[in-house]
Amino acid sequence: MWVARADDGYLFGGLTQHCVETLRAVPMLIESNDPRVRKRLLPETYDCVEDEEEWRDAAVPELERLFLSRAQLVRRDLEKLKKLEQLDSWVLLIQDKHCNAWLSSLNAARLALYALADLKPEHLERDGIDLAAPKQQLALLRIHFLAEIQSVLLGDVPLPDDSDLGECPPMPDLN
Exposed/middle/buried for 36, CB within 10 Å: 0-12, 13-18, 19+? Predict the structure, then answer.
């Protein structure tokens, strides 16, 4: 995967079919009704049962609406994925104005993958993938891929400036 800064966002290219499938799963993971996912995304916050019920009545519906609206935005952005046939890869533009929605969606999807794969904290340690079953290993790879995209959107990954790029191929039309 490569990343470049565009005028109004981040351009992710060289995405494989596996990467695209992982990205397309993000809205579905956020919208999952699986109890493990719901528990991970909306954990208990109070020890007192009455306080917990009050919080759930007041906050959870709004949080659910927020998850849904962000999932819809991500889904719309994913509809604009472009396949570069000659390179057998995909390109995605994430506009700056959508970065916050993407960041929270990617984070929620990572939490959902963690829950659905029955991962444990030790799986996220340096050699944790060696402790994982094949299904868990795939979930870990997806979690790390989504984390890389988050890192770019957060500005944690230095991107080359124009002088570092040398001669570049023409940009694909993303409209």
Answer: middle
